[in-house]
Amino acid sequence: MPTFKLRMRTSAALLAGAAGLTAIGAGVVPATASAATASPQAIAAQIVPANQLSSFSQIISHESSWNVTATNPSSGAYGLAQALPGSKMATHGSDWKTSATTQIRWALDYMNSRYGSPNAAWTFWQNHHWY
Prior knowledge:
Residues 1-35 form the signal peptide. Keywords: Signal. InterPro entries: Lysozyme-like_dom_sf, Transglycosylase_SLT_dom_1. This protein is mainly α. The chain has helices spanning 3-18, 40-47, 50-64, 100-115, 118-128, and strands spanning 21-24, 27-30. The protein has 2 domains: 1-31; 36-128. It has a two-stranded antiparallel sheet. A hairpin with a 2-residue loop joins strand 1 (21-24) and strand 2. It is globular.
C-alpha cells in the first residue's frame, strides 16, 4: 500500500473518531450499530458533504442546539433546522417530528435549494442571524 493511501485512511479515521464515527475501508459508518442511537451530529457527518459540514453544523447549532424537537415558542418553527412550518419536512419522511435523519436531509436540501450550499447559507446566516 502506498504511503499516501495510508495517510488518507489515517486522516479519515482521526476525523471520523472525532465525530463519533468509525472508518471502515473507504467508507465511514456510525460507531453505533443503529442510526436510531447515533447522535444527530454523527448522522449529519454521514449525509452532509465533508466540505459543507462545518457550515451546516454552525447553522444547526445556532438554530436548535442539535435538539430534534426544538420548538420556537413565538413562531412555531420546529426541529434541527427550525423549519416553519415544521410539517414541511414531511416531504422527506413521515417521521419528521422525531427523526434526525429526516430533518438533516430536509435541511441540506433546503440549504442547497435556497442558498446553493450550506457554506453559502452560513455566510447568509452570519450577516442576518437567520437563514
